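Quick check before the chapter quiz. The format below is the same one you will see on the exam, so make sure you can read both the input and the output lines.
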Amino acid sequence: MATQTFTTTYEPTEFKTLLADCISESVRAEMYKIISTQKPEKTIFTRQETAKLLDISLPTLHQYTMTGVIKAFRLGYKVRYKLEDINNSLTRIKTK
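Here is the expected output.
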């Protein structure tokens, strides 16, 4: 394996700072690429998706919506459920 020697006029601390900045910039660029290509988690669900997620029927979901067990939102003629509200509708059961 060949060894190469480089000479520079940088002070050791100045060279370390320069090298650290280059590495940070490269890592930041790679992290941005990874983050920007990821899909955001879905947070709004249709009636069918919500019923499937909760493993209940559409009539049961409608009943839960009408009685206030789960909060729904209307967008025009469409009913939508927020993931936060779906999770909040699940209540803990007291066990002995």
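If your answer matched, good. The chain has two domains: 11-39, 44-89.
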